[in-house]
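Exercise: predict the structure of this protein bound to iron/sulfur cluster.
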Amino acid sequence: MSKIAWFDADVVTPEEIIMAADFTPIRLIGDPSIESSKVDEHIPPTHCVWAKNILEQALRGLDPEIKGVITSHGCDCTNREFDIWVESVDVDFLFYLNVPLKRDKIALKFFITDINEMITQIEKKFNIKVKSTRISEEIKLMNQIRKHLKEISEYRSNLKLSGSEFHRLVKIVQTHDKKNVVKTLIDKLAELKDKKPFIDKSKKRILLTGSVIDDSEFLKFLEEKGFQIVADDLCIGSRYFWNLVDENEDPIKALAEYHLNKPIYSTRMPSYERFIFLKDLAEKYEVNGVINIAQKFCEPMLYDHPYMKKKFKELEIPYLFVEMLYNREQYKQLSTRFEAFAEII
Ligand code: SF4
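Solution:
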């Protein structure tokens, strides 16, 4: 099946619309092993390293099965990249979905209008009709996936599943045909039910938050440093499946409401709501500490950090903030910071 890729700072692209148009929605994932070459002539040196990596790959050439790309309004880096994509990336269809920054009634109306515009543009470009009944079916499928992922995520807390393995699983869901991944998730749940806890109890229980973290090897690296990721609010993690879409509502309205009301990210306001979600996770999963990772030049995270630091200090929950480059050599260079944090918590 042909694919439509999505590129956003937050997970706010309604995949159900893409599925109802008979395309496989594919999240664009970075590749920390590549160096930038083509991208530097298009962007300033202070551009987010993750978004830069995605653009580098796109400039080199996307998977030929990708027939279009949807960028959703998020941070300044992803927003400003859209113009460069239009100008320089070889892809037939590009759409900028204007997801509102606010979450009130006016924002909802605005978002519904833009989702409808996205449908119109897809219909025109590919000469198809996206039926409302079909969107409703895809919502049901995605809700099933969200429920399974949420259930599986709980096994991190009782030490039957590593954070890196779970992260890999969410990434598979975001990059493969959704119909095929349901069975993978059901099988994983069956396996976990009979499994005995195997993760060392002495590992420090952490809540992982921060920018887009799409390299599962980074989570594995944290595990090697003595941590067990028992909870997260990542886009390749909890923010992808925490809530469900209302199946009894008009499907477009339900999708718009779902994306506006899901756990908030640093690209949207107000920040304190994000803190409340993190605080609840930290308390529910009895974490020893919080690790907040910013990709280098990730402005939303840099602005959030002082507030998060202050609030976690008030709660007396140890908090570590690390800004890092998007390559695996960098993980090794940061080893001592993580090891020191594991020791003190
Ligand atoms: S990591 Fe930060 S700056 Fe980069 S795309 Fe995500 S939100 Fe934007």
